[in-house]
Amino acid sequence: MAEKPISLEDIYNLITNSNTELKGEIEQLNKNITVVKKEIENTNNKFKEIEEENKTLKNKLNVLEAKLKKYSVVAYGINEEDKGAAEEAKEFIEQKLEIFIEATQIRDSYRIGRKV
């Protein structure tokens, strides 16, 4: 059997159909690219918001830490007896620094590390 020769019209139709299919696929790819670009833009915007919030929270933390440290005194080598940390701190301040205070003026006192 002899095969039917391919005519120029058949070739033209194949190319036209292929071209149409490719155009459809390209349009779909372009739509997908647009969607991905929007998602990336949304993600970038959310990331920027999170960065700003993180920066704000870090600043707030620094302010709070500074406020906590503002009235802090750390003393090493105080022998703790049965009196408690506040009374020991009061006695240390009075004896070593010659500053006379009431134990009630000490807001917080506690031992750091092991007992000496």
TrEMBL record:
Protein name in UniProt: Uncharacterized protein
Chain coiled-coil ranges: 12-74
Keywords associated with the record: Coiled coil
Top-level taxonomic group: Eukaryota
Tagged with keyword Coiled coil: yes
